[in-house]
Automatic annotation (TrEMBL):
<dbReference type="InterPro" id="IPR001915">
    <property type="entry name" value="Peptidase_M48"/>
</dbReference>
<keyword id="KW-0482">Metalloprotease</keyword>
<keyword id="KW-0862">Zinc</keyword>
<dbReference type="InterPro" id="IPR051156">
    <property type="entry name" value="Mito/Outer_Membr_Metalloprot"/>
</dbReference>
<feature type="signal peptide">
    <location>
        <begin position="1"/>
        <end position="16"/>
    </location>
</feature>
<keyword id="KW-0479">Metal-binding</keyword>
<protein>
    <submittedName>
        <fullName>M48 family metallopeptidase</fullName>
    </submittedName>
</protein>
<dbReference type="Pfam" id="PF01435">
    <property type="entry name" value="Peptidase_M48"/>
</dbReference>
<keyword id="KW-0378">Hydrolase</keyword>
<keyword id="KW-0732">Signal</keyword>
<feature type="domain" description="Peptidase M48">
    <location>
        <begin position="70"/>
        <end position="257"/>
    </location>
</feature>
<keyword id="KW-0645">Protease</keyword>
<comment type="similarity">
    <text>Belongs to the peptidase M48 family.</text>
</comment>
Length: 269
């Protein structure tokens, strides 16, 4: 009887913790609140910016911030049109370009904390190529993929009953799980702890990213040549970006399938 009560309580907790991904409608598990995820993101982002060297190339920095702000506006409009602006509560958007020509990478933490590395700019080539990357990364955050992965990790490591207490009583472990879950590749204790996004999460980020970049006035069709360039880049060794963002023929075919929907949102500026 006790086992049944515990099982029922656990089932109810997991059911209550389910959220819905925008656009795709997929149901996901999110045991960590948005405010807690955003708070963890602020801490991790500050740490990253403290140890990283920010780019001093004014033109490139301006481009990253311009693209980011346009996609931010598109995301906010999408949620506003859906009557779901509360989903972005607590977002404090930041867009920074980190000087590291060997790092072919970019990411977005919960709450809109974005970092782009200079090593990816030769592959993005221009503003539209950069919009593919930033739209995709911002989509991961908006879809709460980091929270989903952190929930899975905490559930596996701590169990349902320990999740809430871990957030307040074991901040070091929580921050470690957070860093691996959000896909920043941040070094912790000498190790890079990084979980790969699942195929469903990657597909969703592609899907949402195409729509957000289109709403921002960037041609979503340019996602195909970008991913082709990224795939070609991987032939000389896997870039950090591809360690958690697989680029292959299947992905490109999926993007081609999604383009007609994304093009409906596109108006050139």
């Amino acid at each position: 009887m006790l086992f049944k009560k515990v099982a029922t309580a656990t089932s109810l907790l997991l059911l209550a913790a389910c959220t819905t991904v925008p656009i795709t409608g997929r149901r996901t598990l999110n045991l960590v609140s948005d405010s807690e995820m955003n708070s963890l993101a602020v801490t991790q982002y500050k740490e990253t910016l403290t140890t990283a060297k920010l780019s001093t190339n004014s033109a490139d920095v301006a481009m990253v911030r311009r693209v980011g702000q346009r996609i931010q506006a598109a995301v906010e409009k999408y949620f506003r049109d859906q009557g779901q602006s509360d989903q972005l509560a607590g977002y404090q958007w930041e867009f920074n370009l980190i000087q590291d020509d060997k790092m072919v990478n970019a990411w977005c933490m919960p709450g809109g904390k974005v970092a782009v590395y200079t090593g990816i700019l030769p592959i993005t080539r221009d503003e539209t190529g950069l919009a593919v990357v930033m739209g995709h990364e911002i989509a991961h955050a908006v879809a709460k993929h980091g929270s989903e992965r952190m929930s899975d990790q905490m559930l596996a490591q701590l169990g349902t009953s320990a999740v809430s207490t871990a957030l307040t009583k074991n901040p070091a472990a929580t921050q470690s799980i957070f860093a691996s879950a959000v896909g920043t590749g941040t070094q912790l204790g000498g190790q890079v702890l990084l979980l790969k996004f699942s195929r469903n999460q990657e597909s969703e980020a592609d899907h949402l990213g195409l729509i957000f970049m289109a709403m921002a006035g960037y041609n979503p069709a340019q996602a195909i040549p970008f991913w082709q360039r990224m795939a070609a880049q991987s032939q000389g060794g896997t870039p950090e970006f591809l360690s958690s963002h697989p680029a292959d023929a299947t992905r490109i075919a999926d993007i081609e399938r999604l383009l007609p929907e994304a093009q409906k949102y596109y108006k050139a500026r």
